[in-house]
Specification:
The protein has 21 helices and nine strands. By secondary structure, the protein is mainly alpha-helical. The longest helix is centred in the last third of the chain and has 45 residues.
């Protein structure tokens, strides 16, 4: 099987572009709640305590996610200091690593053209870009499951010493399992088993896949931490871990029980614009496999040549279908759960597009271009309507965004809509023209990157300033003024990120638990209360002596003693404009 070396210019381009999109403004926005706040604080507490075995959040055992991402965050905090950038840097680095790995793999098997298409498709989509910029586990999970499956493929099909790639299959699974629990080994195993069943290569895997030694390697890498947690915490760990794994699969958690159809629009929009190529790419892979099966049954052929070009498409198709069905069967559904199937989507889409450039009669090519345009125009309408929809539903956002009714998204959505409309027109002109079709790819990718940068530079700063940052800045101010024995209460807004910015434990009390608040306020010593201004009237008589210390756009910090250390810009914090404009 012929192998192709990567092109240095292409590799440099991918490094620069992925670095730009993953790292631009990475630390300029406050942590989003709830996942980013919880993860970043758990990593900070590990960094502060020096306990690299037991993850905690707000001083309590945290078992919702295993330990690997917290180890990465701890190293990042050592390198860059405790900050939003440091909390997100591991995700961004693994995002860049994913793009490079995908390019090297596809280039090795299909050549630099398909490799570049596939890498750009994996980079230039909404979901992968978003996950690579957040302090959550998914970017690391996608990298490690992809490493595992690429190791599986190469170990099964590479000649000679190439069979040693199989160890990456087991090592990647172990990293993924330390990142997000059972799903870390479920994704590679489901894909691998489906592929072996479809191609009848069980014997080859037994001969080349080192299943016994590989399983021991997996257990050696992933097992010690789980054993240590069980020995240290016993039922307190195992019972909670069961809730967050088996329980999450069997029953909806935290209100995330959407219908079985949920991942169809998620995949369509999350992988856009390249999702337009997926139906045709999947059908093309299925037809190829079906033809092989018919030929094999009629001619009694021995086997398809190991690692043949068409087999890679079958592998990617089974990866997409198997993982998609697995997460659809889960009762708890969130958009980022299907992230591990995006590399396979990029393989199918890139193979289909490359074939379409070679052969203009490729089935489904023109229909896919029309599909991309149709979804694009719908997205443009959605962007243009976003400011109106925001105003219409702003009243329902007041609980977490007190000044929502006074906020204006600005020109960002209109700029994004304009870019999409222009891009769709060009894609229609170029993509439906046999002589100019190749340029349509650059237009689609450039439009996605441009809209993404518009969101980062024009929309996100305003949302951060007036919706995300205010309680975080007050939590930071409280942390500057409170000793470890003092008390910080978050009342009416229980955002986990408050603990990260306060650098201390926070007593979170929902607005309907007044008795808990009364009990907490009876504690002697210095106490501060961080709350939305609209719930101030609900405070009990025990809070009568508390005076406003700082205000930030709909949030207020109260204290029973004056502030000692003022944060930067404290004097300007109380301003509340009549109309807040987005950037």
């Amino acid at each position: 099987m012929e192998r192709t070396s990567p092109q240095p210019i292409q590799l440099l381009l991918l490094l620069l572009l992925s670095g730009l999109l993953f790292f631009t403004g990475l630390g300029s926005m406050g942590l989003t709640d709830r996942d980013e706040g919880r993860n970043a604080e758990a990593g900070r507490e590990m960094f502060a305590s020096g306990d690299f075995v037991t993850p905690t959040f707000n001083g309590e055992l945290r078992v919702a996610k295993p330990v690997f991402v917290y180890w990465l965050m701890t190293m990042s905090y050592h390198a860059f200091g405790v900050s939003e950038f440091a909390a997100r840097a591991p995700s961004a680095l693994f995002g860049v690593g994913l793009i490079v790995m995908h390019y090297l793999f596809l280039t090795r098997l299909r050549g630099p053209t398909v490799g570049l298409f596939g890498a750009l498709m994996l980079l230039l989509n909404i979901e992968v870009l978003a996950l690579g910029r957040m302090a959550i586990t998914d970017s690391v999970l996608i990298f490690s499951t992809t490493l595992s499956l690429y190791g599986f493929w190469l170990g099964l099909h590479e000649p000679g010493r190439g069979r040693h790639w199989i160890w990456a299959f087991y090592a990647g699974m172990a990293i993924a399992t330390l990142t997000k629990g059972p799903v870390g080994f479920a994704v590679p195993l489901i894909t691998g088993l489906l592929y072996l069943a479809a191609t009848r290569q069980w014997l080859i895997f037994w001969q080349r896949g080192a299943p016994i030694a590989g399983t021991l390697l997996f257990l050696l890498l992933a097992g010690p931490w789980y054993v240590a947690m069980f020995l240290l915490h016993g039922d307190a760990y195992s019972s909670q871990a069961k809730v967050h794994t088996v329980g999450r699969f069997l029953a909806p958690m935290e209100g995330h029980g959407v219908g079985w159809w949920f991942y169809f629009p998620v995949l369509l929009l999350g992988f856009y614009p390249w999702s337009a190529f997926l139906p045709a790419g999947l059908y093309r892979a299925y037809q190829s496999w079906r033809e092989w099966r018919l030929m094999k049954n009629r001619a009694h052929a021995l086997e398809t040549p190991p690692g043949s070009g068409r087999e890679l498409d079958w592998f990617a198709g089974l990866w997409v279908v198997g993982v998609f069905i697995f997460f659809s069967l889960s009762s708890t559904r969130l958009p980022h759960y299907i992230g591990p199937l995006f590399p396979a989507c990029a393989i199918l889409a890139a193979s289909f597009w490359a074939q379409g450039l070679k052969d203009s009669s490729t089935r489904g090519l023109r229909g896919s271009v029309h599909f991309m345009m149709g979804i694009g125009y719908l997205l443009a309408i959605g962007f243009a309507c976003a400011p109106w929809l925001f105003i219409k539903f702003s009243g329902k956002m007041v609980k977490e965004f007190p000044l929502a009714t006074q906020f204006d998204l600005g020109i960002g959505p209109y700029v994004g809509a304009t870019i999409i409309v222009v891009a769709m027109g060009l894609i229609g002109y170029l993509g439906l023209n046999d002589n100019r079709r190749g340029m349509a790819f650059g237009v689609a990718g450039g439009a996605l990157a441009s809209v993404f940068l518009v969101a980062i530079l024009l929309v996100v700063p305003g949302l951060n300033r007036y919706a995300i940052a205010p309680p975080q800045e007050l939590a930071y101010a409280a942390g500057l003024n409170l000793n470890p024995t003092d008390q910080l209460i978050a009342f009416g807004s229980t955002r986990p990120s408050m603990a990260f910015y306060a650098r201390r434990t926070v007593t979170f009390i929902p607005a309907n638990e007044i008795d808990r608040l009364r009990t907490a306020l009876r504690k002697e010593g210095r106490t501060m209360i961080l709350l939305p201004e609209y719930v101030q009237d609900a405070l009990p008589e025990e809070a009568v002596g508390f005076q406003p210390i700082l205000k930030r756009y709909g949030y207020v910090l109260l204290g029973n003693q004056p502030m000692v250390t003022a944060p930067p810009d404290a004097e300007a914090a109380s301003a509340t404009p009549s109309k807040i404009l987005g950037h």
